[in-house]
Each structure stands twice: as structure tokens, then as C-alpha cells.
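Need C-alpha cells for this chain, all 263 residues.
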Amino acid sequence: MESDAGLAQEVESILAAARERGGGGERVAVDARSLTDAFAAAEADGRVPIIAEVKPTSPTADGERTDDPVELAEQMVAGGAAALSVLTEPDHFGGSAKTLERVREAVDVPVLRKDFVLYEEQLDVVEADVLLLIVRFLDEDGTDDLEDLLSAARERGFQVLVEAHTAEEVERAVDAGADVVGVNNRDLAKLEVDLETFPRAATAAPDSVTLIAESGIGTPEDVAQMRAAGADALLVGSAIMDHGGDSDVAENTRRLTDAETQT
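Here are the C-alpha cells for all 263 residues:
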């Protein structure tokens, strides 16, 4: 069900919780592992660059995974993941800053902090290699400016993945200075996925931008579709995590990272 603001009620709930969360206090300083170098290394190794997502659950998941997130992360890397995404949103995704810390200590690939960051003080929660900023939720009353947050994140050493959903949002991201842009195939107004979203929105990005396709990618055919539309990398969560199941996370990852060798 949609709210008056045009967002699904689940998303409104997530944002309301995000507005109440403060920062970590002491200013974070990050010595980041390069995301684009990790993508290039995967390509050189014949693998599709995949950011595999560690998320115990989500509002769109059927069930949850209760495995140790560090073990899951290690399996994803064993399956060929070029980078990892770790949820730190606690109320709706079961994430935490401590989980990200543990995962980042255990692996040698870049780790993205996946959360709903609305204010500069919320940057200072945990060290990560990459930080997510979502165009739709910034530059509005009560939130910080995208360009200012992007600059503040880089001053701390973060690389930044700026997420968009439409061509217009991709343009806003690029105008703000983003050089890594994710296009979310999921419409946050309805929480519905349309894999034609990435091809439509990606055309607004210049060649200099690293493009990441997000959400709804579950099969080698989906991988091929996103790559043909210009995706440099893909962010995959539920298809790898198998919420409510117990399938092999390493094999789920490998099925996608090896997708282009199977055709």
C-alpha cells in the first residue's frame, strides 16, 4: 500500500526510523579498498563483477537467514563476489554496524555499507569501503543535500555509490559529482521490480560513470540482460541469500559470477 508521499508504507517506516537514528559520534576516517579495481580484477579473471549482499531479511523477503553473517560473507567471496554489501539498518533488515565490522575484518574485498543515510552525522557510524546514498531521499525538506553529503563522505575516505531509479535521478547523481551510480530496478513507491528500469535509466549516464544494476537479478539470463544494457557490475541480495531457505550461498554466487562463461 502506498502512502500519501508516494512511497510504500514499508519504505516510509524505514525512513521514519532513519530520521531518528543519529551518528556514531567520532568522525570516521577510512582507508578504502577500491571498488572499481575489484570490478576490473573480476573482469580480468573472467568473472561477472557481483556485489553480493549480506542481509538477514528485508520487507520484500520471504523469511530470513539466521546463519553467521561472516560465514555467509566468506562463502560469497569463495563464490567469486568482487565486493560485498552489508546492511546496517537494524529495524527492518536485521543489520548492524557490528556485523559490517566483523565482515570487513574477515574478507579482503571492498565492503559497501547499505543503509538509509539522510544526514552528515550518520556517516560517522562505521568504517566501510563504500557508502550508499539514495537520490530519492535527499535534497528534500529535512534531509541533507546530495552534493554536500557526497563531498562529506569522500572527505572521510569513503567511495560512494549513488543510487537512482530513473534517468532523471541518474542525471541528478552525475550533476552532484557521482562517479559510481546504481540503478535500482525496484520502484520504492510500490516495491515492485521491473528489469527494464536499468536499460531505461542507464542511458542518462556518461561513459565515465561506473554503472551498477540493482535488485531483481536472480538468473544468468538476468545477468546477461543487465550487462547487455551497460551494467559494469550487479548488486544481488535475495537470489544469493535465499531467505527462508538453506541453499549453498557460495554456489548461488558462483552461478551468477560465472554466468558469462556458460553462454
